[in-house]
Structure formats: C-alpha cells, structure tokens
Amino acid sequence: MCIFPRSCLPAHRSPAMKNGFTLIEMMIVLSVLAIGLAIAMPALTTVIEGNRMTGTANQLLGDLYLARSEAVRSGRSVEVCASTNAQTCSNLATDWSQGWIVRAAASGTLLAVHQPASTFQASATWSSLRFSPSGEVRSSAGAANRLAAQTTITLSNAHASRTVEIAPYGHAAIRGAQ
Question: Domain count of the chain?
C-alpha cells in the first residue's frame, strides 16, 4: 500500500514522468493566489480610478492648448466652455463634469468635443474661457476682460483629484495630483 502518490509509480517509468504537481499542491497554489488577488483588488481599483482622472485632466489640458494655439494661429478668439449637450456652451454652469467643447468664438465652429468616459465631479471658477489672438485668457463676459488672476478647473472622483490651473497669459498646467 502506498502512502505517498509519487512513491507508488511503477518501476518501469522514466524519472521524467515522476515530475509534476499533485492535486493538493495545485489547490494550495490556487488558494494562495486567490487570497493575494483579494488583497490586491481594492488597491488596484484606486490606481485605475486615479489613472482615469489623470487621463481626463490631460484631455482638458490638451483642449486648452488646442484652443490657445488655434487662437494664435487663426488670429481669432477661441472659446473653451462647459457643455451639457456637446453642441453649445452652458453659459450659466460652472460644472464641467458633463463635458466641454472647443469652438471658434465668432462663428461657433466646433473644433473639439469632449464627453467624459467616467463619472467625476468638476467645478470651475468660470463657465467659459476665451483665448484671444495673443494667447491670453479672457473671461466669457467680454473680449476686453483679461483675467486678473489664474482660474482653476478641479476634477475629482472618490479616489483622486486633479486641478487644472490656467494663468491669465494662457499657460495651463495640472497641479495637486493626489
């Protein structure tokens, strides 16, 4: 009678046939792997949500730079504004979580549309930013109103927060990654 399964192999088998895993060894490895995954999943979710927030902030930053460069290139004002329908500006809303658009200020021609892929909260100090042909940021109230101080758009979800800061002279950057 055999107590250990490997010692019960017939003598005529080659040594290479004796190598392998038993069912008990395989079950132990799978249970350790399952425990490890159960511990790692919450941390992985936090990383994924943080990366989504960074991606959304990078898209906003790219659209701000697109608006500024298009204003300088064309010699006409270009506007970036919060939008709830991806067609027109939501002039009274400072909530950018529904998306935003980039458009030529005079003609209203859409240059870029962004609708968020994930849920997040977004708040801004302005509903609309207008880049002048010189690259400076103007308020939506009028072309002559150069912003006196930097403006911010804060994007956040349960796991991360990113703030896009726009200086009066048009430079934008992401700050406060948490």
Answer: 1
Full-model pTM: 0.73
132 and 93 Cβ atoms separated by less than 8 Å: no
- Residue of 58, 68, 70, 88 lying closest to 135 (CA atoms): 68
Domain that holds residue 66: 33-175
Q: Is residue 105 part of a domain?
A: yes
- From CA 128, how far away is CA 124, in angstroms rounded? 9
Residue 71 pLDDT grade (very low, low, confident, very high; cuts 50, 70, 90): very high
Task: Give the integer Cα–Cα distance in Å for 52 and 44.
Answer: 12
Digit-coded pLDDT (tens) for 78-102: 999 888 888 888 776 677 888 889 9
Q: Is 67 a member of any domain? A: yes
Burial zone of 47 (CB within 10 Å; 0-12 exposed, 13-18 middle, 19+ buried): exposed
CATH number of 127's domain = 3.55.40.10
